[in-house]
Amino acid sequence: MAVMRDMLLYLSKNRIANRMAKRFGLRLGAERFVAGETLAAAMKKVAALNESGLVVTLDHLGEFTRSEQEAKESAEEVVKGLQAIASAGAAANVSVKLTQLGLDISYPLCLSHMRTIVSEAKRLDSFVRIDMEDYAHNEPSIQMYEQLRAEFGDHIGIVLQAYLFKTEADMERLLVLKPNYRLVKGAYKEPPEVAFPDKTDVDRNFIHIIKKQLDNGHYAAVATHDDAIIEWVKGYVKEQAIPVDRFEFQMLYGIRTALQQQLAEEGYKVRTYVPYGTDWYGYFMRRLAERPENVSFVLKSMFKR
């Protein structure tokens, strides 16, 4: 299983495999995890999720942009997403990847695009979450969050990953900002010098950082499909009398939909991460890497008529 996971993560960054996959389009199996290739298609899914009692974070897929024009177009698409959410009165916000907005081209370029996006979010009284990517982009992402948090206040949040050794220190560093975190286990292949290689240690640290954020009194978005983690959170907030408006559960579109609905019906805030766009391949491959048994599902989808 570990070999399969490593292979899928390798393929997630392979340009040739990307081009081949797109010949099949979303029918390759990605439609299970991706809400469509256009904003209009995604907004229909957002409306349906809201109707069922779920809130949403909308993500225009893309990463590792290689030109300033591509970065500009990506930023414009995020702004359109914020405007579409506001126009529809949807219970939703947006998530962004900094590499999609030009981080690998230049930090100032990416920062400029982020200022445009978060400025619009502030105007619309909305919210933008910086998705955390691989370790090479961790520190620049945190630095950008610090700058934007100082400028735009509560309209910006960030993701922290439990599998990194440095995460607890990052939490201490950012504590003064009263941050709004999405806390995740982490989905990238990282070396043992920077990340816990053993799942047990990752799970233990995940609970530790969730507890730390809740105890600090700052908003915690707990992003997991793990039953044991979910039950721990439910038990801890009850034991500590932590109000339900101080945290939320987050899960991915197309994964454990019945559980998402169940938690919402129990009175918890549940946010579904809804990705869309034509650049779906890397995201899709990481979802398969998390659950390699889904590969059989994809193979069946490829040969459906």
TrEMBL record:
Residues 42-298 form the Proline dehydrogenase domain. PANTHER family: PROLINE DEHYDROGENASE 1, MITOCHONDRIAL (PTHR13914:SF0), PROLINE OXIDASE (PTHR13914). This is proline dehydrogenase. FAD binds at M132, Q161, K185, G186, A187, K199, T224, H225. Keywords: FAD, Flavoprotein, Nucleotide-binding, Oxidoreductase, Proline metabolism. GO terms for molecular function: nucleotide binding; proline dehydrogenase activity. The keyword Transit peptide does not apply. It is an enzyme of class 1 (oxidoreductase). InterPro entries: FAD-linked_oxidoreductase-like, PRODH_bac_arc, Proline_DH_dom, Proline_oxidase. Its cofactor is FAD. Its EC number is 1.5.5.2. It comes from Paenibacillus algorifonticola. Pathway: Amino-acid degradation; L-proline degradation into L-glutamate; L-glutamate from L-proline: step 1/2. It catalyses: L-proline + a quinone = (S)-1-pyrroline-5-carboxylate + a quinol + H(+). GO terms for biological process: L-proline catabolic process to L-glutamate. Binds 1 FAD per subunit. It comes from the Bacteria. The keyword Iron does not apply. It holds the Pfam family Pro_dh. Substrate binds at K97, R286, R287.
